[in-house]
Amino acid sequence: MLDNFKSVSLSYKTAPLAVRELIALNEEEAKRFMLRLRDFFGITELLVVSTCNRTEVYYSFGQERVTPDVNEEIVRLLLIEKGITDTENYLPYFQLYPGYADAVQHLFEVCVGLHSQVIGDMQIPNQVKQAYQWSADLGMAGPFLHRLMHTIFFTNKRVAQETCFRDGAASSSYAAVELIEELVGEHAQPNVLVVGLGEIGTDVCKNLADRGLKNITLCNRTAAKAEVLASQYNFHVADFGRLIDEIRRADVIISSVAREEPLFNLDLMKQVSVLTFKYFLDLSVPRSVDVALEQIPGVLVYNIDHIRGRADEALNRRLASIPQVESIIAQSIVEFNDWSKEMMVSPTINKLKNALEQIRKEEMARYMKNMSPEESEKIDKITRGMMQKIIKLPVLQLKAACKRGEAETLIDVLNDLFNLEQVAEGTDKH
User: Fold this and answer.
1) Tens digits of residue pLDDT in 262-290
2) Number of helices (H), then strands (E), in the chain
3) 199 annotated ligand binder
4) Rounded to the nearest 5°, which phi and psi values hold at 352?
5) 113 known ligand binder
6) What residues does the Glutamyl-tRNA reductase N-terminal domain cover (predicted)?
7) Where residue 178 falls among pLDDT bands split at 50, 70, 90?
8) Is residue 294 situated within a structural domain?
9) What is the DSSP string of 339-355?
10) Which of 92, 76, 101 is nearest to 4 (CA)?
11) DSSP for 356-411, written as a single string
12) Domain for residue 149, yes or no?
């Protein structure tokens, strides 16, 4: 029975942000935790994915037919690694996948963005690739994980090419950044001023950084928060008291300020003296940018309804694509499962080849003493060809039995017929 892959998951669906922040792992912590898992449980292949929205562990013990379920033990070890000793209260935040099929299905769905907060999020494939690199760095990505990850990457490529699942910006903050590129040109580097760094403003900063925009200035009443974000993304910080000067310099102003009256009004803009085009993207509710600013030549205002409309259109296209995405995933999983099942019989195929090769060599040794080199070479070539033809049918039958779920019976028969375990032990000794 193929049941050698399991996982545990903590995500925004099961845990609040405060809990996710406590348990999230940076690269150094993730690698240290992976080494602990290897030493504690003997895990051979391991993937640890940790982002702001999820921390997940996928693991395999190799090709044994019966493998232990250590999901709860892994969760407890993770909590202890993060300094949380009250493990019982945190266990309910985790979703456990003790079965191969569910764990594989979940990883595919996570990697294509079906479980992202913003459905179809393009960031998750890069985060998973980074986690896969950690596994490779530590020598914990074997044949199974290599094949699984490359199948997933190919599936992601198909989803991008064959569906609308990656089209458009499905969140308001991402839609705002996408709108900037439309207004100023995709490859331009405009001066962008972000005013207000609440949840939406913070998300805007992340999306600006992800899209490679560099000339970003942050302005917030609480300077400490602006400095933290600026340090994280290599942005600039401006004093809130110098807002007029920053508006003069900016090409695009993104506002997510929480206040009753618009911050950006005609009186304020009279002090700016607009000489170039300026685009105001108002993400605030109530509005923080007075629509009357459009009376000023060169000023355009886009409010949250306009930006949400763009996001909703993209989201609807993505939601409509879900059945097609699920179909692509299902096809990929079928192909991967066929390969996985064949992996289960590959040790038996190798043992059978070794057993037949051993018989061939023993018989050759009995007669080659009296042969010339030319005769020996000819007989060697003939008998090798015979062995290849003899083994071809059992190999095909084994692979066919895999797809029928009957491989274990055929493996037992071959082991008994050719005494493969003893042959393998003899080969190891040599």
Assistant:
1) 999 999 998 888 777 899 999 888 889 99
2) 16, 10
3) yes
4) -65, -45
5) no
6) 8-163
7) confident
8) yes
9) HHHHHHHHHHHHHHHHH
10) 101
11) HHHHHHHHHHHHGGGS-HHHHHHHHHHHHHHHHHHHHHHHHHHHHHHHHT-HHHHH
12) yes
Distance between CA atoms of residues 56 and 266, nearest Å: 50
Predicted model pTM = 0.67
Residues 220 and 154 in one domain: no
Q: Which domain holds residue 109?
A: 5-162
d(CA 260, CA 274): 25
**Of the candidates 123, 78, 128, which has an alpha carbon nearest to the alpha carbon of residue 107?**
128
201 is in an annotated binding site: yes
285 plus 353 within the same structural domain: no
133 in a known ligand binding site = no
**Confidence label for 386 from pLDDT (cuts 50, 70 and 90):** confident
Is 168 annotated in a binding site? The answer is: no
205 catalytic residue (yes or no): no
Residues 120 and 88 in one domain: yes
Same-domain check for residues 122 and 191? no
Residue 263 neighbours by CB distance under 10 Å: 18
Q: What domain count does the chain have? A: 3
Indicate whether 52 and 140 sit together in one domain. yes
For residue 299, report the phi and psi dihedrals to the nearest 5 degrees: -110, 130
Contact 262, 284 (CB under 8 A): no
> Quick one: 23 and 133 in the same domain?
yes
Query: Long-range CB contacts (< 8 A, 24+ apart) of 116-121?
Result: 116/53, 117/12, 117/53, 118/170, 118/171, 118/174, 119/170, 119/315, 119/318, 119/319, 119/322, 120/165, 120/166, 120/170, 120/318, 120/321, 121/170
